[in-house]
Every structure is written in C-alpha cells, then in structure tokens.
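Below sits the subject:

***
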Amino acid sequence: MILPLGISIPESPLVDPKLSSIGEDFCGLDVNTPLGGEQPVTAVPVLTFNTRLTAVVATSTGDFTVVFIGTNTGHLKKVVVESQTSALEYGDIVVEEKSPVNQDLHFDSQLMHLYVMTARKVSKVKVQECTVYRNCMECLGVKDPYCGWCSLENKCSLRSDCQDAAKDPLYWISYKSGRCTTITSVIPNQLQRTTARTLDLVIDNLPSLSGHFLCAFTALDKTLVTNATRKGSGVNCTTPRTDSLPSIPPGQHHFTAKLSVRMTSGPDFVATNFTFFDCNTYSSCTQCVSSSFPCDWCVDGHRCTHDTAENCRNDILVTGVSRAGPSYRSGPGFCPTINLTVGTSPEILVASGIKKGIRVKVHIIGQFIVQTRFVCQFNIEGRVTSVNAQLLGDTIYCDPMEFSYSSRAPNITATFAVIWGGSKPLDNPDNIHIVIYRCHDMADNCGICLALSEKYECGWCQSSDRCEVKEHCEKGTAVWLNRSETCPNPEVTSFSPELGPWEGGTNITIRGINLGKTFQDIYTGVNIAGINCQPYEHLYLKTKEIVCIVDGPGTREPRQGPVTVKVQDYRGESKGHYKFVDPAITGISPRHGPKSGGTALHITGEYMNAGSNIQAFLEDLPCKIVSTDQNQALCITSASDNISKKKLRMKFDKGDRYLENMMFEYVDDPVIESAESGVQTGQIKFPKGIPAGGIKISVTGKNLAYIQKPQMYVFYEQKMFVSECTVLSNVSMMCNSPVIDEIDDSKLDADNPLKLEYGFRMDNVTGVQNLTLNKEFNPFLLYPNPTFYPFDKAVKYYKSDYLNINGQNIDRACQESDVEVRIGTSYCNVTSLSRQQLTCRPPEAQPPGVDQSGQPNGEAIPEVIVTVGGSLRYNIGHLSYSPPQSLNGPITKPTIYGAIVIIVFILFAFIVFLIAYKRKSTESNRVLKNMQEQMDILELRVAAECKEAFAELQTEMTDLTSDLTSGGIPFLDYRTYAMKILFPNEDDHAVLQWERPELICKEKGLRLFGQLIMNKTFLLLFIRTLESNRYFSMRDRVNVASLIMVTLQSKMEYCTDILKTLLAELIEKCMEGKSHPKLLLRRTESVAEKMLSAWFTFLLYKFLRECAGEPLFMLFRAVKQQVDKGPVDAITSEARYSLSEEKLIRQSIDFRPMTVYVSISQQAFVGGLDINTENVPVKVLDCDTISQVKEKCLDTIYRATPYSQRPKKDDLDLEWRTGTSGRLILYDEDSTTKVEGEWKRRNTLQHYKVPDGGYLNLVSKQSSIYNLSIFSDKNDKSHKYETLNLSKLSSVSPPLSRATSPLNHDHDQGLKVWHLVKHHDSDNQKEGERGNKMVSEIYLTRLLATKGTLQKFVDDLFETIFSTAHRGSALPLAIKYMFDFLDDQALQHGITDPEVVHTWKSNSLPLRFWVNLIKNPNFVFDIHKSNIVDACLSVVAQTFMDSCSTSDHRLGKDSPSSKLLYAKDIPCYKDWVDRYYSDIKMMPVISDQDMNAMLAEDSRLHTTEFNTNCALHELYTYAMKYNEQLTVTLEEDEFSQKQRLALKLEQAHKIMSEAGQP
C-alpha cells in the first residue's frame, strides 16, 4: 500500500513513553533520540497494489504530486496523488521483466528522467511522453499530470513548452479539466459542391484569442483557406469558391473535407469533417432520392438537383428521403421505373437468332410521360439497338426484334432500358436484363443438352445433331427431343482402370456421352465383362461420368469383356475390354534403407497397376505408392522404430499379395562426420564452393552406402540450391558444390567469403540436414569464381616442360582435381594451383586441334581451354609447340641471289626517275610562269571590284534614306490582313462570301451548332477528339484552328479562355512526354498553336498600323530600292545587290544607269487617281529586260498607289517613241532576239539601243495593235529597227500579230533562255570560259555592302518590335497577358530554367507572328514581293530568329553566309530581346477586367468582318466527318453528360440533315 504524502497528523495529549530511566546515549550517540510509545500512527491508504513494491520516489509537477514505484516483477508504476484520499495509477513501464527494481530511484538534475536499477542493468526512463499523443482526447485520456493540450499550437506538451499557457486556462488544458476545444456542430454539416454559403461552427472551450480567424478546408491533397469571424459560441466562415474546390472523383458523389479553424499564423487548433456533395452526379431517380444527401429528382428534366426552386420549375418532383419536411412524393417508390412482377427473375431469356418482343411492367407518374414516345434500347456486346415500344396499362411492349451475338460464349448479358422523351431512361432498380444464349454452345451432346435447366427450353435436334431450341430445329418440323425424353446412342469413350484383381472390389470410372440424365436411368444398366457393376450415386455426373464397384468373377480364370451401359432401350459399349488379372510380386530394390524412411522402393512384378486402390506395406508399416505401371510400382518407405527386416505386402483392392523370398531391411541412419573441399589450412575443415558450382566436396561418415541418391544443398537468401553426390563406399562419398546462379559474382569478397547453411538430403534422415546448426560443423564458404587470363599473344609458343596460366582467386575454393585443362584433343596434367597461377604439364607432342564441329584437325593449332567445376569455362588462347622462324640462322644461296636482283631493280628505277623529274621540272616552270601572269590579271580585277564595293557602301546610304520618304504606307484592311495569315493560299474563302443561299435553310441547325461551339466543354472535347484521330492531318489542324478563331472573333473573351485551356493542356502534355520543354510551340503541330498565331494576328493589328508597320514597310522599300539599283537576272532572280548568297550574281556585269521619260496612254490610265502620267522620269538600267522596265515604270508612276489598284504589266506594252512620230513596241522576245548556240537571250534596252533620256510610252494591249496601222505609213527616215519590223509585217500570221512578236515556238525547241548569267547544267564550264572569270567568292563582299546600306532599317524594325514603349505607342496588352500566362505555367510546373521560359515566349510571339510578317510583308501591305526581295527578307527573318534563340552558335568559315553576315549584330539583338522580356515581366499585372474590356472592344470593332455561318458550316463538316468518335467522347465525359451535349449534337445533325434534303 501507499500512504498519503504531506498529510498532517492531528494534535493529541502526550503519552508516557516509559523510557524516563534511559539516558540520551542509549542509542549509542548523544545525537540520537530514542522513540517510544504504545499507540501507533494510523493513516488511510490512497492506493493499494496486488504486487510487492520495492522502491518509491516522489516529485511534484506544480499542480499534482507524482509518485514512481518499483515492483518486484521489474515494472515501474506511475501514480498521481490527486488528494489526501485518492490517487490514480496512470502508467506501467516494463524495466526488466521478473527482475526486482532496487530501492535506489534517482531523478536527473532537470527532474525529467528517472534512473532505475535492477539486478543487471541501469535504465534511464523519461518521466513523460507527451509528444506521442496526436490529439486532445488522447492527450487528456492518458491522465498524465505532466501533459496537457496546448490549444494554440495544437500539440500535447508540458505546461512549460506551451507558449502563453498562463494567460488563459484554455491555452493549456490539463487532464483534470477534461475540456478539449471541440467543434460540436457545423450548420449545415454538408453542402452542394456547386454552391457556397456561410457555415455556423459551434465550438466548445474556444480560447479567447486576439487576431484573425481562418477556416481551412483540406481534401484530395488540396487546402483552401477562407476568412472566419468570431461569435459567441464559435465562429462563422464561408465555404471556398466553387471553381477552386477539387472535383468529385469519378464514380463517387461526394468528398469529405477536413474543416479546421486556425489563426493567421499557427497550426489548426480544432477540426472536424465536412462533406461536399453533388446531386448532379446521380444519373437515375432511384439513386438520387435514395441518397443520404438532400437531393431531389426532376422527372421531366430528368436530372438530380439540390435546388428544386431553380431547376425544377413547373416539373413533377420526387423528393429525396434525406430531404426534411413534408412531401407529396418522397422516396424511390415514386420514381418512374421498370419493375419485376412478383416471383419472377430479373433476367429475360432469349435464344440467339430468335425474334422476340420483350414486355415489362412499369411504374409511371405524370401524364406527360404516358403521352410521350417510348423506345426499348438493348446494348448487345457494346452495340446499341433501339426498337419502338407501346404502353398499354402498366406494361411496356417492345416491338419484336432478333437477338444475336457474335462471341463464342454460351450466353451473354445485354443491358435493357426503356427510353422516354427521346433520351430519358426509366429507372431499372431490379436490374432487369436480357440473357441471350445458344443451346449448342452450352451442350455439345444430347445428354448434357437435355440436362440443361428447364428455363432455357433447349432440346436435341436429331436432324442437325446438335442442341437447339425447337424453333431452330428445321423451323420446328424435325425430330426434336425435349428434356422428358431419352437420348439415343449412349457412348462409352473411356474407363479406368483397365485391369482389376480376380478378387474384385475395384472402383471403375466410366466416361462417355449420353450416360443418362438421372441416376435411376443407369442404376441397373452398368456391366463389366458380363458382371454387374454397382454405381455410386454421389459420384455420378449427369450424362458424362459413372463410378461403380465391380465384384470378382468368382474363379481364377482369365476373364475379359467390354464395359456396357444401358439407358432405357439404348445401349453403349466400350471399344476396349476390361481384364480380371492375378497380380504377382517378383522382387524389390534396394533391399536396405535407413530407419528414418524415405527410401524409394522399386517393386517389380506382373500387373502392378491392377485395381483402383493399390497399397503397399512392409509388414505393418505403410509404403506410400508413388506410381505404378504394368511391371513396376514405386513406393516411399515410412520410418521404423528399430532395425529389422520386413516382409512386403501389397493390397490390390480386395486381393492381397506377398513377396515370400525377399525382405527389406531397415538399417541405422547415415551419419556425416566431415565435409571438406579445396586446399585446407590448419585442422579446421570447411566445405567450399563457387557460384558456378562443381567443386568436389569430400564427405566422410557412416552407413552412406544405403542411400540411393544422396544430394547436397546450400541455402542462399532463403532459397535452396541442390547438387548430386556419388557414394564411394559406406564411409565416404563425393559431392559437387551446388550451382548458385542468383548471386552476382562481383559482389563476393574473396577475403571474406559468404558463410552459408548447408546439409544433405538422404531419404528422410533428419540428422544430416542443416549441419551448420550443429556446432561441430563449419559453414559452407562461398568464394568468387576463379578467373583465368588469356595468353598475351594469340599464339603462345611452348618452350619448357610446364605450362603456366595466370589468373585470380584460383585456389580459394579449388584444388587440382577441380580444374581441367584441355589442349586441343588432349589434356594438360594440372600439377599445382596457387592464388594467381595454375601449372600443368602438357603432352610431350603437340595434340591436334579441334574444328568448329568438334572433330580433330591435325593442321589446326590446338586451343587451351580451362574448365572449373565442369561448367565454368575459359578460352586461354592457342598453344604451338613449333617455335617461330628464327632470323639468326645461316644465309642460304637463294637468299643472296634474291637480294642482288632487288638491288639492281632499285638502281634502275632510280635512274628512270631522275630522267622523268628533269623533264617534268622544265614543263612545270613554263606552266608556273603562265599561271603567274593570270594571277596578276586576277588580282587587278579583284582590286577593282573591292574598290567599287567600298565606294557603293559609302555613298548609297544617304540616297536610299531620302528616296524612301515619298509615298504613303498602303496598309491592307483588317479583313484582308487576317485572311492572308489565317488562310494564306485561298483568295476567296467561304468566310468572305456573304451570298450563300444554300445556307439559309441550314441557319437553324448552324445556330444550334454555334451554341455548342460556344459551350466550353463541347469545344474542348471537339478539339481533343479531332486531334486524337490519326487521320486528322496537319492541314486540317491549321484549317480548324483558323475557322474556330473566325467563329469566335466576336467573342474574344471566350476565345481567350479556350486558348489558355488548350495551351495549359499542351504544356502539361509536353511536361509528361519525352520531348524537351523547349520544343513547346516550336512548330504548328496542334490546333492550340495555330489558334495562338491567329490570336496575336487579331489583337496586334492596331499595333501594326500605329507602330510596327512603318519600320517594316521602310525595310521592304529599302530592300526593293537597293536591289533595283543594280542588275537583276530576270530568269534566276539573282541580283548584284543581295543579302542572300544564293541570289547573288557572282560575275562582273557591265551595266549603265539610265533615266527614261515615261508616259501612260489614256486607255491604260487608272481612273480616280490624281497622278502625273506625262514624261515621268524613271531610273532604269540598260541591262534591264523589257518586263523589268515596265515594272520600274509602274513603281515610279504609281508610287503612292496600292499595288492592287495599279495596272498590271502584262496588260501593257512598252513603246519607244523615236523621232517625231516613230513608235516601236519593245518585247522580251521577238524576231530580233539573239541566239547563240543553244542559248537565247532576253531583249534589253541595250539590245534595242534605247538611249539615255529616251521617251517611252505605256499603252494597253488593244491600243498597241492600232499602232501597227500608223507604223506602216512611216517614211524612210525611220529608225533602222522600224525597217526591220516592217519587213516582218508581210509574213506575220494572223494579220493582227505584232510586228516584233516572238517567233513561232516550234523554232525555239531545245533553246535555253538567259538574261545576265548562263547557268550550265554541270559544273564543268566550256573551254575558254574559265580564263575570263574570277573566283566567284570575291563577290561575297557585295553582301556586306548591301547589309551596310540596309543596316539602319533592320535596326529600326528590331528596336520597334523589342521595345515596350516606342514611337509613342504602348505595349499591346495581349503580349503582356500571354507572357504572364507562360510565366505562371512555368511556375506551376516547377520549371526554374530561365531559358525554357525565354524559349516559350520566343516561340509564341517573335517566331510565330513577327517572323511570318517579316518574310511576308504582303500580308500587311498592298504590295508586290519579288523573288529576290523575298530572299533578302528571309535572311533578315533568320537573323531575327537567331536573336531570339538562347543557344550560342559557333561560327566558322563553313557556316552559312546568312549567319556570318549578322554575326556581330546578333549579340546586341539578343540583349534587346532579354531586356524586352525582362521589361514586360516587371510591368504591372494586367487585371482580368482590363483585359476583358480590351477583348470586348476588339470583338465590337470586327464583329461583321466575316461570315460566321460559313465558318460554322466548315467546322460542321469536321463534326460530321468524325461524328462517331465525337459522340463517344461526349457520351463518356462527365460534364458533357450533365449538359447532354451528345443529344444536342444529335439534334443539330438531325436539323442539318433535314435541311439538306430537297
């Protein structure tokens, strides 16, 4: 017992101690005072124990006294003394079981640990374990006075570890108070997921806290925090936004969130569960109204809802069982359903191929359902079939239909539904379904067929000889056996056993076909060789199997006969015969075996397999039969208690047989005394092995010869590896170490081998198993495999008496007998092994080698092969006994003669060489002098060319800038601009056609389809479905994306939302795939990427017109004007001034600038344009073709006119006005065209000898014909070309052909046309041409001249594009918005590499939008772009792309000139790009309100630009093309199902198809 501590004793009168005669030193010292008295001090125990207490120590926690008590059983008890009369044991710790605790218990200095001593150890015990308790109830439940619940920190701790515990009793709650902070109720305690409201949380013992409360909702790995306000009994807080809540998992209807309350900083201090449900996830009325949530069913709307007022107006309502309050219709009993009739099965059976009408009972509420159209729908193997149905009374009658299926299963289950209102199924709570079956797949013979369940109505059709329903048996006209009739032709297919003893008692199993339907059919009809066989009823398998017992024939004469089975009037007989025989035993082997049993005893004799139950005994000990055949039986002996000889007895059913002249002797069990292998060190013997196995282990013992097949085994990682042993004598045997193939040889340490358990399998002798458990035996040591190194050379020459082979770990586990060395067909006798070398003695003569087939080959060098343990094999190399040919022998005469001949030949060759060299050097000097002269000429030409290029570089810049300032910028209108980018190869696309009468009748269907396109779920599924189809080509993706953007032009807010969703999915897919993130948006491989291009196209048009368009147009004009300053080849488009190496004229062309004065006739004049058309000065070159002159004239005259409004050069002719009235029409080709060999040159101004300052006239084609009549009246003073043309007039046919028109093309066959440069088909130029040409690479300096001239315009364009504020125009919101979106996506996916985000931005805007416009300025301006201008702009575009790249390209002499040209500028441009991206990132985030306002304004401005109906019609063709896959996707998607999008699409199809019919 324990006494109360600190209790005062009440006062009482003094008692005479009767010790007055004793001195104060009675106790030995004067400081001791004797005590005496007759009344003991009494006290009441506060706690008693059943065990003896041996130690006690007490301490205080401040509020309570704590006592630690040791017991004599080794336990330490924890006790808290609560008052003078009560105490509580709250803990019991086992220090050391059954070892008394010493009385010395001591605390450490902090009083946090207690040292406890027992007889053999000292333990340090913590006085408390507060931190192990995870919640308040656990913490206070243990009643540990040290521990309390720290509310603010949400932990169980000491009072001293809880911050601010003294401020409020509720901050740290002790076990005595027992008042945890708990949420007692949440109103409401569950909520529809798609709604939000304020929750009322009632919280008991909520501490007084200063600060802001928060509510946290944690579910599905997502935590959402909302604000909370304190109230008297708890807090109020709102649920999170519905769009931020996690989705309900598929197949479920709710998720439970952890609702916790916390402060702004700190952990949760109280929590409970809160449920979010979604009534919309229920698809049937029965599920909806039976749920545990307040869900109701709208019958006509066919939906489950939580808000009937909003969603079920004017609809019949079935309220849920969980809905509070009265209701007219509540629960699943009011749901429209199909029902079972009483006592019927939910399965409706229909034979395959039968036409049948299904009928079911229904329960329907609401007259509107009765009046609707009903359809029965069957889903057979995924194929949905619908038939009409009629409602008569309370029964639905489905129209008859044929039920069939294609699989080979005996039957299949088809789902069944009754549909009303088009797509609303009646509930099927009883799971009524259709079972379609085929009788012939359920039974392949008559017996089984007639034994089938009666419900299938199957029978045997004798005409087709198969199981059928009656209707299929020749349409009911043939003989058809029903289940009450008997099958003909019973058949016995097999029986066993086929032999039995004369004594009988054999159980015979008979198998066959049509062996009766019931036991009574065959009870008396089984006969074995004329003897009746009695069947067992419990072993009878209908129609298939009979087991019966037959008696013996009664005589010992041989007897045999067939097995017959009689079923009523039919009889079946086996082909084979059953025989009654007399088994006889003739011998056994072996005759000895260990008394532990397990010996495999072979019994020989006759008819050892006779009978059904064969047993063997060694007198009274059973020998378990393992196998039998006619001449032998095998049994396993059982254990014997002693050594003795036993007689063999066998029992064949009722017959016993004995072996009289031979007995089996049980002998003593074998004993293993030692097992060793390898080289032993010292007296300790170890068995050793290697993973390859085969190491010979020598085993000694006793009685080993009595074991037939001894085996050795080793355990490695709890798996047994076994090898065979060979008995040498009664006291020794040899075993091979087991192969351990599941170990990595490289992991074995040769110095510290693995120690494994091993033992022997010797029948059932247990004494030789697991020998390592016996301390007398050492473990099995596993060493790594020995390694042998090949010879240093392919062939080793044998010189000495012994052969040494090097290796590693050779003798760790092996000895000489474990290693075999073969040399060809012979052996090398192994004489010694060491750790790193094997020594063997080869045969005296070289043995023959072995060919690939293993046959001896005397001519082959023998190969040395080392084999360890029989399986580990090393090819060492080839060994030759013959030494290599020596060079130190005597020199023979043939050798001397050969050397003399070689020396003479060398001298002769040297003399010939000297003569040839002399002649060659003279010729070379002459050629060298000639080449030197040519090089001098070449250097002079190169110098002149370079000087000319330098002069051009210095003078051209000023001229070009001044010329470009004239004329306005011919911007295309918005519609044309957008169409050129969205549909670049279609001039008159459907979306521009407003007069489409064929679409008027389809307007309703297109409107419905347009509503679907405006549904986010549908549009996303539509795009995903198309992209998932492998036949959806790249061209289709681009077209669909453009059509979608045209359709959504008036809904840019919605369009942007769709684009962001698709881009987010694309980024997610990229991150999950194997492709590098930098490849995102690199190419237009998805609809999203093309939509992004179109999005920027729409939103950056204003920016183009106000800011970026001017420098782009200036660059185009600068390139065109610079190119036109020099010669341009009209055939190849090569030019003297070019940025492209491929389009550079690499020859020196002689040309002369000219100024001609051009007028245009009234017939060719473009009306409405106020321009000067008389004698306009035009700069041309004398080497220009006539077409090039016409182009330059039109460019000059109509400089301020858009290209589309100008006359076309092909509609005009160029006249040269000579003299006062002479006129000559100039052509590129006419009868005066010069032909040289196979080349024909285009006519130029120089060809016609047009002078500088000449007057030219542009006339229309029609007026040029008129000029011919004037031309015929000219006098003799005309130009000489006029005379030439006059002479041609008389031979022209037809009469109105032009005088200088080209010759008939029949004369031009085989001629090549050229202008400035002849391009030969091969690189080999004609003889004589090479000397007149310089090295073409020297003209590459012209690239630098052109680049320098255009540098300012390129810089202006790049600076405008890569500036956030330039030319007074702010950065478009679309760029900032999209770049922020890409930054957010990178952050969301954990991408920290800045180069990845840089690449995303470059791929999305510069490389996707700007590069396209730089290469194709005709997409923005009304201009004409020639081939040479296109080539130059491509170089600028490539430079632009390189500027946006994050990778550094190393350039060398082999790099493309387009990259070398701007190599020094690109680093500067890259800095501009980095600064541009950085500035955009630093700009304030664009609010959704501002962005939406901008998008709405853009939509308003361009709403009527395109025919949306045409775009919808184009999109609809894709919906029709992929309708099947799209419908499946819509039907499988959860959100699509809720919105019934598949039905709406079907309605659109129906309307469109009806509209398309005439």
